[in-house]
Design a protein that fits this description.
Distance between the termini: 105 Å
Radius of gyration: 31 Å
Helix content: 55-70%
Strand content: under 5%
Shape: rod-shaped
Structural class: mainly alpha
Number of helices: 38
Length: about 325
């Protein structure tokens, strides 16, 4: 039997009761035009049986007005296909409540494109499970604005894979809150590119745990800026291993404080090149112990500048003289 729905005017569509909507057959649903669907209110949309919603085409779902899409409840959203979800505009997606986003399944979340994801708020994204976050492509992660990224839950951040984290640009990385940075696993930290490491603020670096510091690759350590190096606490510097210390450049070593030099092991100081020895700031020399000096070879001992030698305390000077005598 042919549906009469296609013959209804927009005003007639708007005047239909929710009971009448609930009584629609699949033929009635199929007969609805985009203009008619756009005229439906949120309460009318909410009145559709789930079976009727499955009969909607992608174009029909896309025709639902922005103000009416909020009428869909969890059970209705659950029956939307990936094609339905993909057909929604960014404005549609943005209009969905956090409860509606939370009701989406993994396949539906996977159907979202980068433009749609960019329209979601931090609260909406934070409702997603780790399995749903895992469906995001690198382009989709890159589409999240820095502002929204900073509003994401620590669970969302912790769920990002190495490849997904690698998609973040410098602005996004710098937008991460201290709490979010703390939530990063050691594997995630190690996956950061050098451009991302450089983007970390001194405030972000300050919250890195010793475990996270220990996970940095030698390339990452070598990429740290002077201000970043200077911002590291003694505990963080102490967490560096010999390979990481050896990766430090002369410019970076010049930025280390006396406290930072002081917590390094003798075998770590021994990795310093002659240029790096000469780069130690005079104010940081007080952190150099006699054991440190005793671990240096002849080239390293001879690399101390006149200014550095003149800044030595008696114990350091005696250690240097003893080292000279032993060579």
């Amino acid at each position: 039997m042919t549906s009469i729905v296609s013959s209804l005017t927009i005003n007639q569509i708007r005047s239909l009761s929710t009971t009448a909507i609930a009584n629609f057959t699949s033929d009635d649903v199929a007969a609805l035009s985009s203009a008619q669907i756009k005229a439906l209110s949120s309460s009318q949309i909410a009145a559709f049986e789930t079976e009727d919603l499955t009969a909607f085409s992608s174009d029909q779902i896309a025709a639902v007005s922005i103000g009416s899409i909020v009428g869909l409840d969890a059970s209705q959203l659950a029956v939307l296909t990936s094609s339905h979800i993909a057909g929604l505009s960014a404005k549609h997606v943005s209009a969905l409540s956090t409860d509606q986003i939370a009701a989406l399944g993994s396949e539906q979340v996977e159907a979202l494109n980068a433009t749609q994801i960019a329209a979601l708020s931090g609260a909406a994204l934070s409702t997603m499970t780790s399995d749903e976050v895992a469906t995001f492509s690198t382009d989709e992660v890159a589409a999240i604005s820095a502002k929204v990224l900073s509003a994401l839950s620590t669970d969302f951040i912790a769920a990002l894979s190495s490849d997904q984290l690698g998609a973040l640009d410098a602005k996004q990385v710098a937008a991460l809150t201290s709490t979010q940075v703390e939530a990063l696993g050691t594997d995630q930290i190690a996956a950061f590119g050098t451009d991302q490491i450089v983007a970390l603020t001194t405030k972000q670096l300050a919250v890195l745990t010793t475990g996270q510091i220990g996970a940095l690759t030698t390339d990452q350590v070598a990429a740290l800026g002077v201000k970043q190096i200077a911002a590291l606490s003694s505990a963080q510097v102490e967490a560096l291993d010999s390979d990481q210390v050896e990766a430090l450049t002369a410019t970076q070593i010049a930025a280390l404080s006396a406290a930072a030099i002081g917590v390094m092991a003798s075998d770590e100081i021994a990795t310093f090149s002659t240029d790096e020895i000469a780069a130690i700031n005079v104010k940081a020399l007080s952190g150099l112990s006699t054991d440190h000096i005793g671990a240096l070879d002849s080239d390293q001992v001879q690399a101390f500048t006149t200014q550095q030698v003149q800044a030595f305390n008696n114990a350091q000077l005696e250690a240097v003289l003893a080292a000279y005598a032993a060579f």
